[in-house]
Amino acid sequence: MGLGLQMFVNALLLGGLYALMGIGFSLQWGISGIINLSYGAMVLLGSYLSLIIFNMFHIDPFISMFVTGAILFLLGAFIYRFTLQPLLKGGIVFTLIVTFAIRLIIENIILLVWSADYRTIRVSYAGSNFQFLGAFVPLTKFLTFIIAGVIIYLTYQFMMNTKIGKGIQAVALDKEGAMAVGVDDQKMYLINFALGTALGGVTGTLWATIYSFSPHVMDVIIGRVFIIAILGGLGNIWGAAAGGLLLAFVETSGAIFIGSHWQEAIGLVIMVLVLLLRPHGLIGKKFFG
Amino acid sequence: MIAQNDRKLNINIILIVAALIIFILLPNYISGYYTRIFTAIFMYATIAQCINLMSGYMGYLPFGHVMFFGIGAYISAILMKTGLPVFVAIPAACFCAIVISIILGFPVLRLRGHYFAIATIGMNGAIMTVVQNATEITGGARGTTFPIITVPPAVVYKYFYLAMFGLMVITSLVMNMIVNSKFGFGIRSIKANEDAANSMGINTTFTKVSTWAIAAMFTSIAGGLYGYWMSFIAPDEVFDLMFITNSIIMMLIGGAGTILGPIFGAFIVETVSEVAWSGFMQYHLAALGIATIIIVFFIPRGLIGTITDKMRNRRIKLSKKTEVTNV
Question: Is residue B306 part of a domain?
Fold first, then answer.
């Protein structure tokens, strides 16, 4: 019972972070139609930006995440406007290659400025934890989980209840129809892409409070977000959240019952199976793209 | 008109034969460093040719195609450790790659566009993890070695140069034959409109799976040769997606959907990245990224594609002029 509960809590706390990470990627892929291979680099950029802010101004990552989110929102908008938007008609090969090129550039910048060493942000309360029904809950992980949940809820509200969010959904559902009633489709795609990047940056900041990070983490993140987005169905916020939780549970239980070195293969095999059997994701119907 | 075409064909054949002779004799006159660079270029050109058949002609982007490269390298390594000669081991590895590609191809080629690309990435990752964990057979994450070659290195490099060159030439010739055959029209019709091709009586499933098997065949031979050449392979090296992204960039630069395109692309990209490595080591990733973006923006049809477009336009213009004078 003790092990089972601890496993459940660990998976849940990890799942919050995975869910937030997956949503940004899923929105970019499902609505803007771009498989963003630079997403891992953008998440890491969020981590490194909060590291700078923490080292220079001693501002807590849980506060500086607003700043990193804003910076990455602008970066995402810039990248979409000047590199991706002109190439949308070229098809999948061009967007894949260009996002990969952006990833190389960001990776190079990170290597030059921070080198390939592992870095951590150690806040003063990093070691503290509390007990919940006999399971240990580290405080930073708990805070991360709560914040991730709040941000996911806010993103959902933004998509459902604001004018821009409704515009983005309209463009995703029927591009020509939305344009006919006066929705600026490219603006919606841009805002959606930038929002996805900002969510990635915030995830990076939250990630930095728990785990150590280096440029190597980029590939790990990209591998995870692919699985999460496919599991949940593209462009589906609650789907991606469920996919993130599911992946965390599968990985945690797989690490205990099968062995941690098979972790990645399990996730990938599940992803391929979902692609073949239920291409619209585990939950939900074909709605987007 | 026919005589003109014949003359053109003759010139092309003379050019190709001259290029063949030059490249076969080349390693006698250049240093080992350049021999190695050329060998790498030929290897990349082979992979880019396979990607070109899948993506440039058929419209399916196999992003995880590097799995066949790794499979070819690993199966040849395992077979050669049991004492088999290289001329048995690499064809056997190639046969295994074909079988695997057919088994995987039937389910995964039902997916289209983004989904196909991502599913192949997933399969590549899964196969890589299996190789990493089957420590008794593959040596696990530490990698495995090929039997040591006793001939002096300078001679060995020349052998691999010639082997890779031969592989590239054979691949290009086979691709040329395929693309110009009836089967090749089937492949191109799938890119144009798969449903229409299906309704016109083309067996799209058969065409797609056999095309993937052909691509897997040549990629796995390249993988086996690469492993023997390097004499040491590790899972995260031969299953690295960088091989495929590089090959895609080469295909785009040279021109997707042309036979000469991938070869020229491989030459250009390898030369540029060698210069970037030696010139500004620290910035070579960013240099590669920026170069890629610039190329995608300014010559989206690729070098060969742009040139053939220009020539075709010119010919159309000329033929219009003659019409006018005739009237």
Answer: no
Closest Cα in chain A, distance from residue B129 (Å): 6
Determine whether B260 is exposed, middle or buried from the number of CB atoms within 10 Å of its CB (0-12, 13-18, 19+): middle
| CA-based nearest residue in chain B for residue A234 | B115
Say what the pTM is.
0.85
For chain A, the domains span 11-114+135-214
Q: Is residue B155 part of a domain?
A: yes
Partner residue opposite A108 with nearest CB, options B118, B132, B283: B283
B272 located within any domain: no
Question: What mean pLDDT comes out for the span A116-135?
Answer: 79
The tokens for B183 are 């089967």
Cβ distance B288 to A96 less than 8 Å, yes or no, reads: no
With respect to residue B294, please indicate whether it lies within any of the assigned structural domains.
Answer: no
Q: Is B117's CB within 8 Å of A230's CB?
A: no
Q: Name the residue of chain A whose CA is nearest to B126's CA.
A: A265
Assembly ipTM: 0.78
A68-116 confidence digits (pLDDT tens): 999 999 999 999 999 888 888 777 788 888 898 899 899 999 998 888 8
Structural domain boundaries enclosing B118: 31-266
Between these two residues, B309 and B224, which has the higher pLDDT value? B224
Alpha helices, H only, A115-174: 139-161, 163-173
Domain count, chain B: 1
Contacts of B288 in chain A (CB under 8 A): 101, 104
DSSP letter for each residue of A178-196: HHHTT--HHHHHHHHHHHH
> Per-residue pLDDT tens for A104-115?
899 999 998 888
